[in-house]
Specification:
Low-confidence stretches of chain A: none
Number of helices of chain A: 6
Distance between the termini of chain B: 28 Å
Structural class of chain B: alpha/beta
Number of strands of chain B: 7
Distance between the termini of chain A: 44 Å
Mean pLDDT of chain B: 90
Mean pLDDT of chain A: 93
CATH architecture of chain A: 3-Layer(aba) Sandwich
Strand order of the largest sheet of chain A: 2-1-3-4-5
Helix content of chain A: 40-55%
Radius of gyration of chain B: 14 Å
Strand content of chain B: 15-25%
Oligomer: heterodimer
Largest interface: A-B, 27 and 23 residues
CATH class of chain A: Alpha Beta
Chain lengths: 142, 137
């Protein structure tokens, strides 16, 4: 069974995510309630996918994503940000940090499960292509 | 004017690493698309930052008896440069090291050894992300 790590400081949101993800009974769900605890859990649990909130105590979601992408041991773990921050700039910051999907709250269970399925299929080459695309599109804007 | 136009196209990087070979390795990794300056101590780094503000600081944590975390705190506490993107590029790999790095003010933490293409992408993505943050502040 695939293991999904949820990192969010709001216990109610965590329960909602657990409920949504368990609808398909396809994943084992583990939880961490702040960025630092989440970082420790990634190394301890070696999850198949991580769902990350942005605004959290001790380490925010963007930094957590960059920290994971900066280490070859964790650089290719599928990462999803699930945040109440809905501005385009927030989403762009998430993508530039290296997240695979940026979803906003409130969320639909089906959309979250579909995102998990998508990111589980990504390869390191897919991530490199996306990074190249982001660099190219930003260069054109500048 | 010509110089400023040139600067628009080329990122200026301050590399802080006490290893004399670090400059060569990074230069080989990033190629000629960047202007790379090398400081081998905190003193040299601070001197450089006073005279010239780079686009990004890439810093090793272990600097002999000194620590790159001190430079992170110096940058974050100095108004004219507090916004600078800081990437820690280091051989320190423990969770405590990473948490301490972000606590000190680093924006990114890359563990050595690094893949050259990956490093270039992260440098560019980080500078763009910080520009985005500045525009939105």
């Amino acid at each position: 069974m695939k293991k999904v790590l949820v990192i969010d400081d709001n216990p109610t949101i965590v329960e909602l995510i657990k409920y949504a993800v368990n609808l398909q009974s396809a994943y084992e769900v583990i939880v961490a309630y702040d960025g630092e605890e989440g970082l420790k859990s990634v190394y301890a649990e070696n999850p198949d996918c991580v769902i990350i909130d942005v605004k959290m105590p001790r380490m925010d979601g963007y930094k957590l994503v960059r920290c994971l992408r900066g280490d070859t041991r964790t650089a290719n773990i599928p990462l999803i940000i699930l945040s109440a921050m809905t501005r385009e700039e927030d989403q762009m910051t998430g993508l530039l940090s290296g997240v695979d999907e940026y979803l906003t709250k409130p969320f639909k269970p089906g959309a979250l499960n579909a995102a998990i399925e998508r990111v589980l299929l990504l390869t390191p080459a897919d991530r490199q292509r996306r990074m190249d695309y982001l660099l190219q599109t930003h260069a054109e804007r500048e | 004017m010509v110089y400023e136009l040139q600067r628009l196209r080329t990122l200026h990087i301050l590399l802080v690493d006490d290893d004399p070979d670090a400059y060569i390795r990074i230069q080989q990794a990033i190629g000629s698309d960047f202007h790379l300056y090398h400081a081998q101590s905190l003193f040299q780094a601070r001197q450089h930052l006073i005279e010239y503000v780079p686009d990004i600081v890439i810093c090793e944590v272990k600097l002999g008896k000194e620590s790159g975390l001190e430079l992170c705190r110096f940058i974050r506490n100095t108004p004219i440069i507090h916004h600078l993107p800081i990437m820690l590029l280091t051989s320190l790999t423990t969770l405590q090291d990473k948490i301490a790095g972000f606590d000190a003010g680093a924006d990114d933490y890359v563990v050595k050894p690094y893949d050259a293409r990956h490093l270039i992408a992260r440098i560019r993505l980080l500078t763009r992300m910080k520009n985005l943050e500045l525009q939105n502040d």
